[in-house]
Amino acid sequence: MQTRSDRLRLPLREFLRICERDRHTCHWCGRGYSATDPWEIDHITALANGGTNHLSNLALCHKSCNRDKGTLT
């Protein structure tokens, strides 16, 4: 099991790659960028549920959507 210290540290280049792949829309709500709700990269399957840091398990999302989702898939 991974711990918080094992969490992802994503280089800017990879962050931008995910932004482009996800077409600058939130994986969870489908809305675009909002200056009042910054972007984060989220694990589609949480690390706590056996997810990985592989790019295929990472998604662009709003900070608030990520907080609301918790460890749900």
Q: Low-confidence runs (pLDDT<50, min 5 residues)?
A: none
Contiguous helical run count: 2
Strand order of the largest sheet: 1-2
Separation of the first and last Cα atoms: 17 Å
Q: Give average pLDDT, whole number.
A: 85
Describe the structure.
With 73 residues, the protein is α+β, with helices and mostly antiparallel strands. It has one domain. Helices cover 23% and strands 14% of the residues. The protein has two helices and two strands. It has a two-stranded antiparallel ribbon. The longest helix is centred in the N-terminal third of the chain and has 10 residues. It is globular. The model has no long low-confidence stretch (mean pLDDT 85).
Keywords:
73 residues, two-stranded antiparallel ribbon, single chain, 2 strands
Give the SSE map.
Elements: H1 12-21, E1 39-43, E2 58-62, H2 63-69
Antiparallel strand pairs: 1-2
Summarize the structure.
The protein has 73 residues and is α+β, with helices and mostly antiparallel strands.
